[in-house]
């Protein structure tokens, strides 16, 4: 059985924008509105978590880079 392709942040954000536009248009029955709203909440959660992971990764990279620079300075001075 083929694995489902994991959704990217950009795909989720694009779909979320579509849902917001559909809801703002105000032209759907309440049941459809609730379904779209639920999907939007899930997409929003996915996007927030993706951004948090990216931020944590960037923090690690910056910390590693700063630590590496400090070690290099110590080696040059030593």
Q: Describe the global form.
A: elongated
Q: Largest sheet, if any?
A: none
What is the second-level CATH architecture?
Answer: Orthogonal Bundle
**Number of helical stretches of at least 4 residues:** 2
Our Rg estimate from Cα atoms comes to 21 Å
> Low-confidence runs (pLDDT<50, min 5 residues)?
none
Taking all residues together, what is the mean pLDDT? Answer: 87
What structural class do helix, strand and pairing data support? Answer: mainly alpha
- Give the helices and strands as they follow along the chain: HH
Give the terminus-to-terminus CA distance.
Answer: 59 Å
CATH topology name: Helix Hairpins
Number of domains: 1
Oligomeric form: single chain
Percentage beta strand: under 5%
CATH class: Mainly Alpha
Q: Give a count of the beta strands, DSSP E runs of length 2 or more.
A: 0
Fraction of residues in helix: over 70%
Describe the structure using short key phrases.
78 residues; mainly alpha; Helix Hairpins; elongated
What does this entry look like structurally?
With 78 residues, the protein is an all-alpha fold. The chain has a single domain (11-77), classed as Helix Hairpins (Orthogonal Bundle). 83% of the residues lie in helices and 0% in strands. It contains two helices and no strands. The protein has helices at residues 9-25, 30-77. α1 runs antiparallel to α2 (30-77). The chain is elongated, with a radius of gyration of 21 Å. The termini are far apart. The model has no long low-confidence stretch (mean pLDDT 87).
Summarize the structure.
With 78 residues, the protein is an all-alpha fold. The chain contains 2 helices and no strands.
